Amino acid sequence: MQREGSPWQGLGVVTLKELSDHLTSWRMFVLEWLVAITAVVSVYVTIQQVGEVTAEDPYLLLRFFTRGTPLPFVALLSFLVPLVSIGLGFDLVNSEHNQRTLSRVLSQPIYRDALLFGKFLAGLATISISLIALWLLLIGLGLVMLGIPPGAEEVGRTLVFLLVTIAYAGVWLALALLFSILFRSAATAALAALGLWLFLTILWPLMMPLVANLLTPSGDVLALLNTQMVLARISPSALFNEVVAVILDPSLRSTQQSMFAQMGLMLIERGAVPGAPIPLMQSILVVWGQIVGLVAGTIMLFVIGYVVFQRQEVRA
Amino acid sequence: MSENLIEAENLVKRYNGTAVVKGISFTIGRGEIFGLLGPNGAGKTTTILMLLGLSEMSGGKARVCGHDPVREPLAVKRRVGYLPDQVGFYDNLSAADNLRYTARLIGLAPHEREAKIKASLDHVGLAGVADHRVSTFSRGMKQRLGLAEILMKDVQVAILDEPTSGLDPLATIELLDIIRNLKRHDVSVLLSSHLLERVQSVCDRVALFSAGNIVLMGTVPELRQKVLGGGFPVEIEAEGEGLHDRLVTIPGVRSVEELGSNKFRLLADSDVRPQAAAAVVAAGGRLYQISDMPSLEMIYSRYFENLAQAEEPLPTQMGKRHAA
After folding, report:
1. Which domain holds residue B125?
2. Which residues on chain A are in Cβ contact (under 8 Å) with B41?
3. What is the nearest CA distance from B153 to chain A, expressed in angstroms?
4. What three-state secondary structure class fits B214?
5. pTM (2 decimals)?
6. How many folded domains does chain B comprise?
7. Looking at CA atoms only, how far is residue A3 from chain B in angstroms?
8. Is residue A71 part of a domain?
9. What is the largest CA-CA distance in chain B?
């Protein structure tokens, strides 16, 4: 059966309203400060340790993202981005039920598609604005503190890193959106999303070797490591960490390099000079699967939420 | 009223195989106020949501302003204003901002947006609080804001779900006035309520809903005729000498029944309450109470009483059956 009109009618209006709500909310204010403080602390810690990095290093800017003890900037982002995404998405739909606005809004000439997609887009746009601001802040601070302009390759790599981080945020936002559709109580939705995030980020890496041991025949170390890696990639955080490791370190030629290093082996391709940097496009190709995985995860979670929302009754 | 703006034919809604709306049919003409009345959970809101295209029909068909709510929900929503039960607005926005959002959703041109918002808020008496946050509004103010939204939309049909529920008497009177005003603007109104007495005064026709079925439909006098039989019942509580005989002689009175001490029930051809009061005075008696015209509530409860009596086997018949 063909429905009349475009499913996207009203999409722009919903997106702008939601974006305005996010940007003016206290929640966003708190989250933005959290992100900004993270950036400043991260840059400060890295600057303290910059003595270890030589001026000849052609990827000095990238060190800003990957250096810094105890927590480098990318590790902080891997932790903070899901938190911000869940913080913005856990009550996107159930708040409409709880405020009893859903039936009134949907009685206007728009489809549910526009409402749901508008909410998701606005959430993603809000996170993107924060991340772009953070990216500019970091590059600007790096420029001021180091006094060396970054090269095009470095800027390109950080730009790809930015896009991947937005995709990573998309996965958690879509998950939070799904839970906001499934649970009428915002607190339950937040708790479920945070619980899943903690499970995938902290518990799953601990459990995963055990599961891998059960799944692989004993004695086959390579098969065991392979299974571990496949299982680890169930977590979006693992995918994100693999992507940023390769994108922000041109010397890495494989996501498995660290695994082989653990085994005392070195991955040497035919004709390759060990430790020599590879171009950005090659780095992207190395982690293309993981990038696609993050985007596919976002789409899959959104589609599940979309189907559930379409079938839900409007009445409160 | 010849043109029907809403036509529902055998509408059915099932949840998990259980029918909550069981094949109802009705029409609403242009400028008509139609009351869909009945207890909570009778299927009124479900029917409304089906008419708006917000809930799938399990069976039957409907046309709203000449459009099919299933295939052309946007066309229907453009022409229909909806005030849900316990209407909600965005608490963080002002009344005017809430209407601005709706105005953009319905595609009002920017140049006419502000004028329409102002006019509609004026109409419902909320112009003074247009810039106040909705979180500070009472329930009655939110209901009026909901009506302002409908007015701003310039609709052909207004669907109001339990508009008087939870309102104090003054707010109810104000709201019913606004509803009458919609009719004056040739807007058809579908009004659902479980508070029969509150809304019967504004309805041209009503449909009494029970357990997913329309059990009675028509004007209030028609329903009165149908359920209570021909004539106007009047109940009087009064004392006086020979009152029964005086009441019987009132022109148009068919019968007078004594219900107890000083209580009488008259059945008349027309409204004889003034004559009955005069008869009490003429008898030198005292009038304590005289009933109102039979309310919808009375009609509704009498209907079910009659139904129960009709279904209940007579004791004599039962006795006969046992004997056999």
Report:
1. 4-218
2. none
3. 9
4. strand
5. 0.85
6. 2
7. 5
8. yes
9. 84
Does residue A285 sit within a domain?
no
ipTM: 0.84
| Domain end residue (candidates: B218, B253, B284) | B218
Quote the domain boundaries for residue A77: 11-198+291-311
> To which residue do tokens 């998990």 refer?
B16
What does the H/E/C string look like for A214-234?
HHCCCCCHHHHHHHHHHHHCC
Point out the residue among A1, A99, A110 whose CB comes nearest to the CB of B90. Answer: A99
Is B148 found in the same domain as B29? Answer: yes
* B54 and B142 belong to one structural domain: yes
Collect all residues from A whose CB is shorter than 8 A from any CB in B: 1-5, 9-10, 13-14, 17, 21, 25, 99-101, 103-111, 313-316
The answer to whether residue B223 is domain-embedded is: no
Instruction: Give me the tens of pLDDT residue by residue for chain B, a chain 324 residues long.
Output: 458 999 999 999 998 889 999 999 999 999 999 999 888 888 899 999 999 999 999 999 999 999 999 999 999 999 999 999 889 999 999 999 999 999 999 999 988 999 999 999 998 999 999 999 999 999 889 999 999 999 999 999 999 999 888 788 888 888 899 899 899 989 999 999 888 777 788 999 999 888 889 988 998 888 887 887 767 888 899 988 888 889 999 998 988 988 888 899 888 888 888 999 999 998 888 999 988 777 788 788 888 877 777 776 655 544 344 333
DSSP B239-273: E-TTHHHHHHTSTTEEEEEEEETTEEEEEESS--H
Tell me, yes or no, whether A276 lies in a domain: no
Q: Are strands B232-239 and B286-290 parallel, antiparallel or unpaired?
A: antiparallel
Which chain B residue shows the shortest CA-CA distance from A313?
B55
- B92 contacts chain A (CB < 8 A): yes
> Where does a domain end: B164, B188, B218?
B218
Strand, helix or coil for residue B67? strand
**Do B31 and B95 share a domain, yes or no?**
yes
Distance from CA of A107 to the nearest CA of B (A): 6
